[in-house]
Amino acid sequence: MKLLKDILFGVRIAAVSGTTNIRFNALHFDSRGVGLDDVFVAIRGTVTDGHKYIARAIEQGCKTVICEEFPEQLVNEVTYVQVDDSQAALAIMAANYYENPSRNLKLIGVTGTNGKTTVTSLLYQLFKKAGFKVGLISTIKIMVDEQEYPTRHTTPDPLVINKHLQMMNETGVEFCFMEVSSHGIAQKRSLGLYFEGAIFTNLSHDHLDYHRTFAEYRDTKKKLFDGLSAKAFALTNLDDKNGLYMLQNCKARKYTYALKSFGDYRAQILENQFNGQLLKIEDNELWTKLIGHFNAYNILAIYAAADLLGLEKLEILRLLSELENVDGRFQYFISKQRITAIVDYAHTPDALKNVLNTINTLRTGNENVITVVGCGGDRDKSKRPVMGHIASELSSKAIFTSDNPRSESPIVIIEEMEAGVEPQNTKKILSIENRRQAIKTACQLANENDIILVAGKGHETYQETNGKREDFDDFKIVRETLEALNK
Ligand SMILES: CC(=O)N[C@H]1[C@@H](OP(=O)(O)OP(=O)(O)OC[C@H]2O[C@@H](n3ccc(=O)[nH]c3=O)[C@H](O)[C@@H]2O)O[C@H](CO)[C@@H](O)[C@@H]1O[C@H](C)C(=O)N[C@@H](C)C(=O)N[C@H](CCC(=O)O)C(=O)O
Ligand SMILES: Nc1ncnc2c1ncn2[C@@H]1O[C@H](COP(=O)(O)OP(=O)(O)OP(=O)(O)O)[C@@H](O)[C@H]1O
Ligand SMILES: N[C@H](CCC[C@H](N)C(=O)O)C(=O)O
Ligand SMILES: [Mg+2]
């Protein structure tokens, strides 16, 4: 059992009622999990206010409450600690509780609208191949070297993060690559972590429901860089219009990478084919299986980060050429009738445009591109017409369907996508609410050499409707359907 006062180290405390010189069992921010002698941190959330559940937490045996406001009635024998910011307090306490594990390894944070999973997962693969013990905290999974753990968030809550970082310490992990989402930063999930370096991929339209304005979204991402120490490195994409902005007033050692401008790390695309692309990085050529100009950026960011972390340049290039695509990122197969089916996690306008442009530049004849796409429920609604427009404009045929409608009406989401379709493209679109049916229709419509893109869900293996998740795997379904149709 730990002492409360020890884990409060570094927390901005406004007032205390009771003693902090007490032992406690576990740390919680959800009253529903609280047990005897636990600490409960009350957080004001987006749906409800944790302060409402203080009494319940105490009934369940909690002896310490961390809150922004004391309840009207205080219970004897319970310690109340008033803090300026409960989310920040939770993050710092979680780091202290797990003995600040981020300080015992090299933690690299990756932020940006698109490319975080790709960059972190490939850095994980690359450092594994280089012979290190490595950690990964990503949308798809958490890896403690070889051991895999499931996750429901891109950036998990501070307890989950620090718990796994401590496991990494115990396993002897030297490097950990972690996605830092804008929700994660806004909710201070990554506060109290010591980052050895941070990477910015790009910034485009997403999450404007949560952050309200693009400037607020951008400034949230920037906080990762604002928090870096002078010893850390900050690596940014110079070709992105917000790349340099991320480095303003940043104390870390600053580096840039670019394809179009004069960055510290530069690359050029020499050849682009369906099965890979040839890049020139600094003065060396590199063949990679990952295609599309967006992946050239990802590869260059990885190269630069690996160099900044001390790997030898030629070794990095050799290992980069061996890397496989990340699950659900331009994952494809070619059927009997040479129909190419691609599953990609493009769920933002920019990602969808990039993937479709990449497909279109690789077309060799007049094969059709049939896109199946939806937009998530309870997420940024303003993306919907834009994605509707992009899918219909850049495909021969677009089938609008459902992608995790959550609590919303799937039909209404689809109608919002349809609203973005220009009159000249209306003939190209079909709307089919049931995603399985939509994929089946795409397979039925496809002829020899055509290309099917199933976008938005990538590696996800579920469809979430009204709080229920049912098994759903785009890749498996499109493959089985083409096989069943004997195509
Ligand atoms: C909008 C959002 O991000 N919400 C996150 C937030 O929940 P919240 O603010 O809604 O919490 P709330 O329900 O209002 O509850 C407030 C507090 O009361 C507590 N509570 C509540 C009920 C009760 O009975 N007792 C109790 O103590 C809750 O535990 C919480 O501490 O804090 C929770 C705990 O950390 C998160 O699980 C939850 O993520 C939700 C499920 C979510 O879907 N988040 C997505 C949008 C997200 O975070 N995505 C990003 C990736 C985005 C990207 O693509 O970049 C991610 O990093 O995963
Ligand atoms: N560097 C990039 N620039 C633009 N688009 C990209 C880039 N890398 C990947 N994409 C596109 O974005 C999709 C999502 O990529 P990835 O999963 O790596 O992003 P992410 O930032 O982790 O997303 P999330 O915010 O959901 O965690 C890919 O399937 C691809 O279509
Ligand atoms: N990290 C993203 C994932 C979106 C994936 C898409 N399939 C959806 O459900 O909207 C988010 O939370 O907005
Ligand atoms: Mg991700």
UniProtKB/TrEMBL annotation:
GO terms for molecular function: ATP binding; magnesium ion binding; UDP-N-acetylmuramoylalanyl-D-glutamate-2,6-diaminopimelate ligase activity. Its cofactor is Mg(2+). A motif (Meso-diaminopimelate recognition motif) lies at residues 403-406. It is found in: Cytoplasm. Its EC number is 6.3.2.13. Residues 27-98 form the Mur ligase N-terminal catalytic domain. GO terms for cellular component: cytoplasm. SUPFAM superfamilies: MurD-like peptide ligases, catalytic domain (SSF53623), MurD-like peptide ligases, peptide-binding domain (SSF53244), MurE/MurF N-terminal domain (SSF63418). InterPro entries: Mur-like_cat_sf (IPR036565), Mur_ligase_C (IPR004101), Mur_ligase_C_dom_sf (IPR036615), Mur_ligase_cen (IPR013221), Mur_ligase_N (IPR000713), MurE/MurF_N (IPR035911), UDP-N-AcMur-Glu-dNH2Pim_ligase (IPR005761). One of its GO terms (biological process) is cell division. It is an enzyme of class 6 (ligase). Residues 110-305 form the Mur ligase central domain. The keyword Nucleotide-binding applies. Pfam families: Mur_ligase, Mur_ligase_C, Mur_ligase_M. Keywords: ATP-binding, Cell cycle, Cell division, Cell shape, Cell wall biogenesis/degradation, Cytoplasm, Ligase, Magnesium, Nucleotide-binding, Peptidoglycan synthesis. It comes from the Bacteria. UDP-N-acetyl-alpha-D-muramoyl-L-alanyl-D-glutamate binds at S31, T154, T155, S181, Q187, R189. Pathway: Cell wall biogenesis; peptidoglycan biosynthesis. Residues 328-458 form the Mur ligase C-terminal domain. Meso-2,6-diaminopimelate binds at R379, D403, N404, P405, R406, G456, E460. ATP binds at G112, T113, N114, G115, K116, T117, T118. Carboxylation is probably crucial for Mg(2+) binding and, consequently, for the gamma-phosphate positioning of ATP. It catalyses: UDP-N-acetyl-alpha-D-muramoyl-L-alanyl-D-glutamate + meso-2,6-diaminopimelate + ATP = UDP-N-acetyl-alpha-D-muramoyl-L-alanyl-gamma-D-glutamyl-meso-2,6-diaminopimelate + ADP + phosphate + H(+). Catalyzes the addition of meso-diaminopimelic acid to the nucleotide precursor UDP-N-acetylmuramoyl-L-alanyl-D-glutamate (UMAG) in the biosynthesis of bacterial cell-wall peptidoglycan. Belongs to the MurCDEF family. MurE subfamily. This is UDP-N-acetylmuramoyl-L-alanyl-D-glutamate--2,6-diaminopimelate ligase. It comes from Lentiprolixibacter aurantiacus.
